[in-house]
Amino acid sequence: MQVNQLDFHILSWKTNLKEIKKIRTAVFLKEQNIPDELEWDNHDNSASHFGLFYKSGLIAYARLIENNVYWIGRMAVLKKYRDMNIGSYLLQLIISFIRERNSKKDIFVSSQVQAVHFYEKNNFTIRGKKYLDAGILHTDMILRR
Fold first, then answer.
1. So what's the pLDDT on residue 103?
2. Where are the alpha helices (DSSP H) in 1-145?
3. Number of domains composing the chain
4. 3-state secondary structure of 78
5. Full domain range(s) for residue 62
6. Separation CA 54–CA 43 (nearest Å)
7. In this predicted model, what pLDDT tens digit does every residue of 12-30 receive, in sequence order?
8. What's the CATH code of the domain at 117?
9. At a CB cut-off of 8 Å and minimum separation 6, what does 114 contact?
10. Contact present, 91 and 72 (Cβ < 8 Å)
11. Where are the alpha helices (DSSP H) in 25-115?
């Protein structure tokens, strides 16, 4: 499968709730054992949501929170679709979405330590110290304008 076979969509929390919950449950709750009460938060209602679909199924997802800066989070690719550059493709589409808004705000991610290389290859740099979030070691990373 090639990334150009994927359909990129801006999702709605209300309309696409079932698909969003399915992918986040598979990746975060089941694979990574994140407690249910930590996965779902107040940001979901106000965040922008993005997905890549293959054969009409959601296979990659991320959300975007906008405050004084942008935070890309809950980045998830279904296990059988990993190591195909799908995560990088989704990340670059979200960055393009942000830049098309002519935003001068920096873009941040809270990266799990094992994913730092993924974000570095997408031009993010580490900013800050490591910390525990939901029992998993993380570090903040930034993509400057």
1. 76
2. 17-24, 36-39, 43-46, 86-100, 116-121
3. 1
4. coil
5. 3-143
6. 26
7. 999 999 999 999 999 999 9
8. 3.40.630.30
9. none
10. yes
11. 36-39, 43-46, 86-100
